[in-house]
Amino acid sequence: MLSILVVDDNAYDRRLAIRELEKEFHPIQIHEISNMQSFKTALETVRFDLVVTDYQLQWNDGLKILELTKERYPDCPVVMFTSSASQEIAVEAMKAGLDDYVVKSPKNYTRLAITVRRTLERTEAQRNAKGLEVRLQTLLNQLNVGVYRLTSTGELLEGNAAFLRLLGLNSLNELPANQTLEVYFQADDYAELLRQLQQNGEVREREIQLQRADGSRCWVKITKSFTRYKEFKIIDGLIEDISDRKASEQEREQLLYQEQIARQEAELQKRRLLFFAEASRLLTATLDYQNALVNVARLVVSAWADWCFIDVMETNSVDFHPSIVAAFDPEQESLLHSLRNSYQPSADSSVGIPKVLNTGEPELAEVVSDKLLAAFAQTESHFDQIRQLHPQSYMIVPLIARDTKLGVMTFVSC
User: Fold this and answer.
1) Residues lower than pLDDT 70 in the chain
2) How far is CA 94 from the centre of its chain?
3) Residue 27, preceding bond cis, omega within 30 degrees?
4) How far apart are CA 252 and CA 258, in angstroms?
5) For helices 330-342 and 380-388, angle between their N-to-C axes, nearest 10 degrees
6) CA separation (Å) from 412 to 67, 154, 159, 302?
7) Are 52 and 98 in contact (CB under 8 A)?
8) Mean pLDDT over the full length of the chain
9) Which residues contact 289 (CB under 8 A, 6 or more apart)?
C-alpha cells in the first residue's frame, strides 16, 4: 500500500491535500505530521514512500524536513507544496535534492496529486535503472569484463572491480594522479588505440597484450568509444580477459601443425615404401645390372632429386666411365654426361665420392656454396659450368652389401 507523509501545520491545508491524494491513489495510507516530534517519530517508525511538505512551518521549515528525510532515506522523494517560498528557496531546495515543487493555491490542489504520481513514477524508474546498473555491473564482474572511463587524453577516471583485477590492482588509489593506461600496454599498441579513437571515435574489438602490475602478461579484447558528458569528451571502454581463448587457439594451432607434420611424415613414408618397392622391382627385372641401375636413377629423379649419379666399383676401384647419370631436365642430363666424361672425380679428393668411398660414411651438404663448388671443380671452366647449373644441396651415400662396398649413389637438388 502506498504510504505518504503530509507535513503541514495548517490542519485545513492538510485535509485539502489529503482529499486530492485519496482521489488519485487507491489504496493509500496517509500520515499527518503537524509538529517536529511527530515527524521525527515517523522517520523512526513509519515506512513511507513519499513526503509532501509545506515550506513555512511554525516549528521549522520545509528545507529542514527535506534535509532530515534525505539524510535518513536518500532515495525517498520529497515534494514541496507551499505558497510562502520564493523562487530562490525553490532553487535551493532543488539543489538539496527536492524532487518537485507545486505552488499551493485552490486551483493547484489537483496538480498536487498529478505531481506526486509523476514523482513516484520517476523515482521507480530511477530505482529500476539503478538496480539494472548494479545487476549489469555484477554480471560484468562475474564475466571478468572490465568497465572503465578515461579523459580524452587517456587519464583514468574510474573502473569497476573486474577492471582492477585485470590490471592486478586492489583499488584505483594505487594509481598515481593523472595516470594513463599506457604503462600497462606496449607503447605502440597504446598510441595506436588513441590514434584510432581520435580519428574514428571508436575502437572495435582490438586484441592486444596487457601487462599487469606484477609484470605478468595476459591477452585482452578492448572496445572503446568517445562519449560527450556535458561539455567534456570522455572515453568509455570495455576490456575482457581472453587469455583462455588465446591459449585454446594456440593449442588448436599446435595440434593442427602436429597433424600436418604427421600427415607429411605418413605421405613421405608412403613415398619411400613405393620407391623401394619399385626400385626392387627394377633391380630384379633384368640380369643386366647396368640397365637396371639406369632405371633406378631415372626413378630417383622422377620422385626425389633433380640429378642422380650412380658409380659402381669394379675390382676394388670405382668405374667412372661409363657413368650412370639421370636428370629431371633432359638438357641438363646431356650436359652432366659431358661433364662427368670430361672431369672424372680425383681419387684423392677430400670431398664427394672419393671421400665417401674411403670412409664408408654418407656426405650431406644442405647448401652448396661457391667454396664447396671450388673443391669439386678441377678447372675454372669446370667451376663455371657447374655453377651455371645452380646445384643447391646434395647427398652422397655408399652402396654396401654384407660389408662389401659396391659403389656410391649421389642425389642433387637444384
Assistant:
1) 85, 136-143, 177-178, 197-204, 228-231, 315-322
2) 47
3) yes
4) 10
5) 160
6) 96, 61, 65, 13
7) no
8) 86
9) 283, 312
